């Protein structure tokens, strides 16, 4: 029995090392959808117009913090009621106010490095969300 114990220990040691390889995360068969494809929501479509797409990127990087939380009355994208009176003023007036600052909103949304064209594209994208 005493000779058997070291052999048993050594055998268990070697067998323990055999199970370290990870199994595949999923088994995929040709023609079948994976769970991730079935459960994934449809991706939000990017705007077709390149200026609107650029405006969306600028919004995400610079404006979303205040507008998504409606900070100090900032209208949320897609909120038709909040944008109705603003859209009635016209795009040029909204762009001018966004560049110069208006009612607590800092000029160019607080990023002086933005060009007037970038601000205009962002305003155009935001108003496009309520159409």
What is the element layout, followed by pairings?
Elements: H1 4-16, H2 35-39, H3 50-68, H4 80-89, H5 91-100, H6 116-128
Helix pairs in contact: 3-6, 4-5, 5-6
Protein name: Cytochrome c-555, membrane-bound
Domain Cytochrome c: 50-130
Keywords: Electron transport, Heme, Iron, Metal-binding, Transport
DSSP strand tally = 0
Structural class, by secondary structure, is mainly alpha
Residue-averaged pLDDT: 81
Count of helical segments? 6
Going by CATH, the architecture of the domain at 50-128 would be: Orthogonal Bundle
Strand count, sense and barrel status of the largest sheet are:
none
- Under CATH at level 1, the class of the domain at 50-128 stands as Mainly Alpha
Helicity level: 40-55%
- What's the CATH H-level homologous superfamily of the domain at 50-128? Cytochrome c-like domain
Strand content: under 5%
GO molecular function: electron transfer activity; heme binding; iron ion binding
Protein name: Cytochrome c-555, membrane-bound
Pfam families: Cytochrome_CBB3 (PF13442)
Keywords: Electron transport, Heme, Iron, Metal-binding, Transport
